[in-house]
Amino acid sequence: MILVTGATGNVGSALVRQLHGSGASPVRGLTRDAVRASFPHGVEAVEGDLARPASLKPALDGVRSLFLVPGMGADAEVLTAARRAGVEHVVLVSSITVRTHPHLTAAAGNLAVERLLRDSGMSWTILRPTQFASNALWWAASIREHRSIRVPYADIGLPAVHPADIAAVARTALAEPGHRGRTYALTGPERITPRQQARAIGAALGHEVSVEEIGREEAHRQMAPFLGDRTAHAVLDLMGGDVNDELLTVHDTVSSVTGSPARPFAQWAAENIAAFR
Ligand SMILES: NC(=O)c1ccc[n+]([C@@H]2O[C@H](COP(=O)([O-])OP(=O)(O)OC[C@H]3O[C@@H](n4cnc5c(N)ncnc54)[C@H](OP(=O)(O)O)[C@@H]3O)[C@@H](O)[C@H]2O)c1
Asked: Does ligand 1 come within 6 angstroms of the Cβ of 187?
């Protein structure tokens, strides 16, 4: 049995579909609300809260492989509960910022979970993705209502990764031998700027999406109410304020692990265009 956490999220929902489609061992999706979650027929929905590890007992029953999205609660206790339940292999979603921006709070948190997992006694595979293509959903309301976006760092491009490619690497690591004890940096196939992303969304919509570049201070004023002061600054650093060569590097890990090329941003835009209409 494979348990997928974050199973209704960007990566987890794609992973559930891919595991189910490949006919791998039985798949269970964790959610806090099984009524709201819609998994493919044959995937078991199980309720549990990662912030309350005791609630995970039914979810972990019989599980041998775990896909873990950390940062939802008590990661140390979740890993202990997994080991006690007999989990043998954990595939963890960390972040490339563990390497590129270790001074940021979120990166330090991911690094701490990586260390806990490595020391847990279970086998592990660590995924370190870069910026997700799905972060463009932040622009959905603005594009729906104004056909435009206002963004900082409009011409700084990171190699945004399609969540389905993170899922594809996770699926491979869970289902095939040779990936235990490996750490994978995951990116898309090319660097793409916000301006180019807006063009790709516009092409899929059939009308232009205009881009207005705003300064860091204005962007921070917009983001801070949702993210808090510190996280807003961290996100802005990663969007362009403090990028470095390693964050800009395109890795071929998706294709070398899965055998399929990494999906371009335009594909993500076409698949998710309903959110922008
Ligand atoms: N976005 C980026 O650019 C980026 C880059 C690098 C790394 N990452 C990492 O990627 C991860 C996020 O992945 P994602 O985007 O696939 O996630 P996501 O779309 O934000 O979804 C998270 C899912 O987790 C579930 N969840 C939330 N709190 C929970 C709790 N207390 N107990 C159980 N389930 C809970 C929710 O499901 P229910 O509501 O159904 O319970 C939700 O669907 C983070 O760890 C982040 O650090 C993100």
From this structure: no
CB of 132 shorter than 6 A to ligand 1: yes
First to last CA, the chain: 38
Residue 120 backbone class (left: φ over 0; alpha: ψ -120 to 50; beta: rest): alpha
Where are the domains positioned within the chain?
A: 2-131+162-187+249-262
pTM summary value: 0.98
**For the domain bounded by 2-131+162-187+249-262, which CATH number is listed?**
3.40.50.720
Report the b/e string of 137-146 with b at 16+ CB within 10 A: eebbeebeee
Cβ of 85 closer than 6 Å to ligand 1, yes or no, is no
Query: How confident is the model over 69-84, as pLDDT tens digits?
Result: 999 989 999 999 999 9
User: What angle, 0 to 180 degrees and rounded to 10, lies between the N-to-C axes of helices 216-227 and 229-236?
Assistant: 130
pLDDT digits (tens, 9 = 90+) for 144-195: 999 999 999 999 999 999 999 999 999 999 999 999 999 999 999 999 999 9
d(CA 32, CA 171): 23
